[in-house]
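User: Second chain of the day. Same drill as before.
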Amino acid sequence: MTVAEAEREAPSDFVRSIVRDDIAAGRTAEPVTRFPPEPNGYLHIGHAKSIVLNFGVAGEFGGRCHLRFDDTNPVKEETEFIDSIQADVRWLGYDWGEHLHFASDHFERLYEWAEHLVREGKAYVDDSSADEIRAMRGTLTEPGTESPFRGRPAEESLDLLRRMRAGAFAEGARVLRARIDMASGNVNLRDPVLYRILHAGHPRTGDAWCIYPTYDFAHGQSDAIEGVTHSLCTLEFADHRPLYDWLVDNLPVPTRPRQYEFARLNLAYTVLSKRRLIRLVEEGHVAGWDDPRMPTLAGLRRRGVPPEAVRDFVRRVGVARADNLVDPALLDHCIREGLNATAERRLAVLRPLRVVIENWPEGETGMLTARNDPNDPGAGGREIPFGREIWVERDDFMEDPPRKFHRLAPGREVRLRYAYFVTCTGVEKDENGEPVLLRCIYDPATRGGDAPDGRKVRGTVHWVSAAHAVPAEVRLYDRLFSVPEPGAGGDFIADLNPESLIVLKDCMLEPSLAAPDAAPVQFERQGYFRPDPDSRPGGLVFNRVVALRDSWAKIRAKED
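Assistant: Same format as last time:
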């Protein structure tokens, strides 16, 4: 299903109801939305919700969605982040066309509007320090205190603002504040800062500016300049909406956008705070922003998660006004459901145990047919080699098995996938008593895995020909944290899952995987895997995308 097809089938929610009503009432001819990331980090799964919602709403109602970088803090912004964000949005399947915008595109007009507020007596230059301003704001239960500079004449503030722009003052020496209401019950209306002095080069404007607008001042006005009709934000911006509206109402903006808030995506066993993600990277708890354990879109992409699965997950979570904690098993389910329909099957032994088929002729190789997808005859098949020595999974053998163990054991007959029935006749062990080699015999009449006499076996195991096996490193990824809400009881680092990454060095793969493409495949009975960018000829590396077991299906069954 294409992105456009999926969006036509999108469920209804309160945001879409608002847009639908606005169109019906003639308030909006076509909706214009925007995805407005700050270029100071990598996007994560939480951002995917905003991306899918903003681009989805625009697509469903015949409008357009802008990609706009709110680049108002040059101290933390980098071109690397701008490039990665564009790559992530494209990976999810969306295109902003000619509507790539930056808040810095509007710096000159924003500054003109700052002067407009000063001339109108609605803003003033404040010489107070950041700590003094913070103290003057008051609390949620006590009103703020007016700055001693609040009554500064407009002419004086205008002169100081122009000198601020010219670089006449040190960083932090002065700010521009809106003159609104220091007694307001909403702290955001207590004379918020609109401009501050930052002697820092900007990734796009260089040294042209040494004063920069705050996010609150740039955001709504950029929406208005670009003709955004529906400014969709997460709930933490609900308290900022009165300021958003005040600025739009008190400036000569060309259009009148409206802000609406929805619940952000909160994922259990995960941290989405940018500060926490930065700490994970900088302290070396992960291998980088694209570590497959990270909730970043770069990490999901490297792990092998299909973008269709992320879009499906976001739509299933839905758009609501109340926060909730989502079980990552739902994301795994979406990944698994998508890959089950697209990934070809292959044989791979992750913890190999050598087997000798004693009645198979030495030096002889047989070719067997394996299906690329047992559920889809149209997917065709491939030829795989079989020989006297094969690898099987170490966990598929027990010398003294319990009653419900239906795999290899002394004297027991099992089916080798796509091959023959084999019976274990002996086991060799090392000095620690661990099995190192199994001796078996095969039944030539069971080629293909079925017995002509109708006899049945209860166990089927996968295998790889030892003479033709391709060695590989396989990385098994799991949840990065071991508790649903990391950090709830203290430092979130203490909640890291020590088994979030298990590296298996001596795995054996069927020869068709010697030169894999980038598409995920299913290792039968193991899970879905994708070649890692670290792969190279003679040094294959595969990442587990998701295991075969669907815990989300069990959760839903219990709820039903």
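Residues 522 and 528 are 4 Å apart (CA to CA).

User: Great, on to the next one.
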